[in-house]
Amino acid sequence: MKSMTGYGKGMVAGEDFSVSVDLKTVNNRFLDIHLRVGSELASLEPSIKKRITSRLSRGRVDVTVSMERAAQIAYELNRPLIAGYVNALKQLQQDFDIAGELDINVLARIPGALQPARNGIDERMITALEQALDQALNELEKMREQEGEALKKELRERVQKIETLVPIIEASAVGLADAYRLRLQKRIGELLNRAGQVVEIDPVRLAQEVAYLADRSDVSEEMVRLRSHLSQFQEALNAPGEAGKMLDFLLQELNREANTTLSKSTDLAIKEAGLAIKAEIEKLREQVQNVE
What we know:
This protein has helices at residues 45-53, 79-96, 104-108, 123-174, 176-195, 203-216, 220-238, 244-264, 268-288; strands spanning 6-13, 17-26, 31-37, 59-69, 75-77, 114-116. By secondary structure, the chain is an alpha+beta fold. The protein has 3 domains: 6-72 and 120-144, Ribosomal Protein S5, domain 2 (2-Layer Sandwich), CATH 3.30.230; 75-115, no CATH class; 149-288, no CATH class. A 4-stranded mixed sheet has the order 1-2-4-3. A two-stranded antiparallel sheet has the order 5-6. Strand 3 (31-37), helix 1 and strand 4 form a beta-alpha-beta unit. The chain is elongated. The mean pLDDT is 84.
């Protein structure tokens, strides 16, 4: 199991250049890659994303790629862009009768006016970039694995806390039928005494009412499903590969069983245990959001 939080850095140097790659990841429902590369490397963006996608499956990934050269960089003019800009300025002067001369400094600052030569990136640099990216990915995944182990330990501890609460609910549910019968008898007796009436309670009718109340408050099925989901959660923690989506689904099911249990029973011990389970589920949910 891996965390979605991590950092990795890679650097490869050639004879006349060096390439560095920084990767930073945080949790996200899907894989969301954000690239920051210079215009010189813009053509390599698709291959960079493809390489990252082959290694990562979830999380927001911020990628910064930079290249430094020891030799002089050749630039070429974006002639259509500059010509269009110059023509627009001349038309502006003509239409509004504005005096002045074109400033080369202004033209040089037009975005895209000066571009690195198209032959500026060679195979050596592409290979170096791929190696630096692999280094950063290796370092990133190592950190994500370490974070994942820490997450797994905490998740397992919280699951074990829930497992200790299930027997409390099961034990409290065993005596519910007797408790309902005594409570119902007491309540009927109080009502009859208040009215000054002497009426014999039909034991069959009383048993029917007790059975109805006990059936409505029976949480045995919920506890069976809860135990099953907890077991599946433990298995998902130990399974290889991605676990985040499965864990998130199981938490939804655990929360559903806890809510049903709370809605069915008025027993204080069951209520307290059910609320404690929900509290642990919420803490689990917070941590699972960071699992790949």
